[in-house]
Specification:
285 residues, alpha+beta, Fructose-1,6-Bisphosphatase, Chain A, domain 1, seven-stranded mixed β-sheet, five-stranded mixed β-sheet, 10 helices, 16 strands, globular
Length: 285
């Protein structure tokens, strides 16, 4: 089951409507340092129905379903067609009725991330890839999205230039604060309980960069999008990253449902910007 932009777009709209319909009433449970909502579970269950068909060499890696799988399933997934979903990225703002959350879906072939789509249902924004192109749409209305044909093509040159405008912030997620001192960062900064929100806006040129430590489902779609726009991404050690899942993510903990990136990742429009961010980070001893 290969990436079909029209099918994916329609499906993500359905997921968005599920999330919005239950946002104010969704039950919450605690999982480690994060929370899980009923919307997470319901959306991922829908995704399972669409994508999890090993008999057709199609698999699903997701935050809520990983605990039901094992190493053999993962090995098969990384050899065939795999969809990677985060049904609600930013569960804290979602549960708090704030707009800083989204739904993330990526596609990989033979373990290499190829395509990505992120919906921000609270603002009516969507960003989606199709082969070498990236498209974006915005309505400003909760749960309302442009038709696929009305999305506009993102210009790599313009969005990277916009990133460099004065006042653009560096985004970082909550786990960065637990591991690093940020006192020497040369940019204004903002902390977000979501990965997809700053990654969409980085792709639109509204951030200077993002520093993130997260799971594969938090990052996969954003990596696909930014890779097609030729952004730079690398570890805080300076080592650059490619799109291969097995190379850059630790072996998953199936029991706990965790699949962590091997290090902390920098996203930015250029190598020079990434190096400036890295130089300002100091890991806690």
């Amino acid at each position: 089951m290969q990436w079909n932009i029209q099918d994916i777009y329609t499906m993500m709209q359905q997921f968005s409507h599920i999330a919005i319909a239950s946002q104010s009433t969704s039950k919450i449970s605690i999982k480690g340092h994060s929370i899980v909502t009923e919307a997470d579970k319901n959306i991922e269950a829908q995704a399972e129905n669409f994508f999890d068909h090993p008999e057709k060499n199609c698999y699903l890696i997701g935050e809520e379903t990983l605990i039901h799988h094992n190493q053999q399933y993962l090995q098969q997934a990384l050899q065939h067609h795999t969809y990677i979903i985060d049904p609600i990225d930013g569960t804290v703002p979602y549960a708090s009725l704030q707009p800083l959350w989204g739904i993330s879906l990526a596609y990989a072939e033979q373990g290499e991330i190829k395509e990505g789509c992120i919906f921000l249902p609270a603002t009516g924004e969507v960003i989606i890839t199709n082969k070498e192109q990236v498209f974006y749409g915005y309505t400003g209305k909760k749960g309302k999205f442009l038709d696929l044909k009305d999305l506009h093509l993102i210009s790599e040159e313009k969005t990277k230039a916009d990133c460099q405008k004065p006042g653009r912030m560096l985004a970082f997620n909550q786990s960065i604060m637990r591991h690093y001192s940020l006192q020497n960062i040369p940019y204004a900064m903002g902390s977000y309980s979501s990965c997809v929100y700053p990654l969409v806006y980085l792709a639109m040129g509204r951030f200077i960069g993002a520093t993130i430590r997260a799971h594969v489902w938090d990052l996969a779609a954003g990596k696909a999008i930014l890779n097609k726009l030729n952004y730079d991404f690398r570890y805080t050690t300076g080592e650059s990253l490619n799109m291969d899942i097995a190379t850059h993510y630790n072996a998953p903990d199936f029991k706990e449902g965790e699949y962590w990136l091997k290090g902390t990742m920098i996203f930015s429009p250029s190598i020079e910007t990434s190096k400036a961010i890295i130089a300002g980070l100091k890991e806690h001893s």
